[in-house]
DNA sequence: TTGAAAGCGCTAACAT
DNA sequence: ATGTTAGCGCTTTCAA
């Protein structure tokens, strides 16, 4: 039924080894025989079986990617970066959603190891001891993308979230807002902690006592941005600037404020985080922190290839540069 | 180094066959031995090798998903539907981006077949003869998702794009606009053709001569929406309503119009297509055609499982229902 | 209920 | 430059 390397060998009057050599581009084949083999491969419509190859060679040229939610505009951009570099290095991606659910995450890691992936790019929230243990049992390299592991055990690619949040908050303070509000998320990930820490640092450096009521926790969704700004507006002393931990929530904040009759940025300045495509798809356009999602994915995958090839790696915790981009949701000087 | 089924068998004093049976949940194992085996699996930290299993059983429990661009808000939603159902049926997904590039598409199909996927969910634009041939050489089932094959050779899941476009155009006509404009895309996919046909049908039924200058072709991007509306506004006789073939372009149209001082919907009514999350993330919120992306992905994957299990399939071309949702970018009665 | 053994299709020494 | 052969780790008859 299906054509195997054996069939090709027989038809071409060579050994399996020779066929294998031409299929794998091994130079130790006489051009004439190579041609002959190539021909009969063509004729028989032979298609190498990657599973058999994987078993024999102990390499599958596929890597696992565990992602919270591929339908998120943030993660899908990351995934694209991963995939492009994977393709460049001839790897395929097994992609699975974890919904940041610990059980699922652990289970997925296991499944991917069963499938003998050559490496894993992991995106998630909390990196627990269990995760690290699971990673250790893997005989393959793992790289975290946009995911911070406070123990620094696992190689990772991130930006400096603390510093970025600090800068954004400071910009708002510089615009004359004594104590900008902060809309963040409930999940206690290290990334969120860092953003929070950066915000706090800026507030405190400004000699402010931290007003807890100006810190609202959402869930990174647009709707939770709307809810957050409504709570903020309801405050006795409503803030005149908000730093929001994601662009999607920031759009919610902007629209929620506009729906209540506020003018952005005159009544309320809004600063986002991520610079997803959403940031320019809103009026006024959103000032935000540029987090290079695509690059994080790409660099993470590139790093993984180095580990998979057992290349020397100088820096296992890569921090990519971020920057602020001021658009129209904040005032210009 | 790595623990194999053989090691487990030896330690547990049973045969490999028995270990295989308990791993695969075969009931023909005495509870006592099952327990014994399970214990030593635990002890040794045995992890079944899915590649070996795949070679022996000729099933990999992984399916291929070929997608134009995972970072698109439209396709990533589809992908999530596919993945969720795949997980439900214990399949993993190999996900690859094609960028609608024919070479890449054909190459990806081949790669996935080499990897011995049990089936393929395909999303793309033009389904050429080459595609169909390629699919035929596959010994595994293929299902198209949000992708129409005019020859109806390959099973598929879609909505009725022609009818949907017709309805949307008609709504605009009913609102008193003699000849709404149409912003579509240049690529000549069957899906686009259907949308175009629906638009034309509505225009013609309204006894209009088709004004070509009111049909603008973009590339489904936000920016091309902006460009499109600028062209339309520049027209001598500018249209007062636009039907746009995707939500993302529709946002561009809305913002482009607003930037030119037009009021939506009073000066210009805008109707979108897809009902991506973007539709509610804009002011005014976007009236649009509800295309159930997630469901299309989910149903496509479900259909694929039926083929993979060799179940009876009654309907190989599934048309899911669509509907219109009127929000604030069009006038209410 | 359990075991023995023959593959699955390929790679990778090793030999020639 | 080419061939031989022993696995890779598992499933699956077939026997017992």
Automatic annotation (TrEMBL), chains A, B:
<keyword id="KW-0805">Transcription regulation</keyword>
<keyword id="KW-0678">Repressor</keyword>
<dbReference type="Pfam" id="PF13377">
    <property type="entry name" value="Peripla_BP_3"/>
</dbReference>
<comment type="function">
    <text>Global transcriptional regulator of carbon catabolite repression (CCR) and carbon catabolite activation (CCA), which ensures optimal energy usage under diverse conditions.</text>
</comment>
<dbReference type="Pfam" id="PF00356">
    <property type="entry name" value="LacI"/>
</dbReference>
<dbReference type="GO" id="GO:0003700">
    <property type="term" value="F:DNA-binding transcription factor activity"/>
</dbReference>
<dbReference type="InterPro" id="IPR010982">
    <property type="entry name" value="Lambda_DNA-bd_dom_sf"/>
</dbReference>
<keyword id="KW-0804">Transcription</keyword>
<keyword id="KW-0010">Activator</keyword>
<protein>
    <recommendedName>
        <fullName>Catabolite control protein A</fullName>
    </recommendedName>
</protein>
<dbReference type="InterPro" id="IPR006377">
    <property type="entry name" value="CcpA"/>
</dbReference>
<dbReference type="InterPro" id="IPR000843">
    <property type="entry name" value="HTH_LacI"/>
</dbReference>
<dbReference type="InterPro" id="IPR046335">
    <property type="entry name" value="LacI/GalR-like_sensor"/>
</dbReference>
<feature type="domain" description="HTH lacI-type">
    <location>
        <begin position="3"/>
        <end position="57"/>
    </location>
</feature>
<dbReference type="InterPro" id="IPR028082">
    <property type="entry name" value="Peripla_BP_I"/>
</dbReference>
<dbReference type="GO" id="GO:0000976">
    <property type="term" value="F:transcription cis-regulatory region binding"/>
</dbReference>
<keyword id="KW-0238">DNA-binding</keyword>
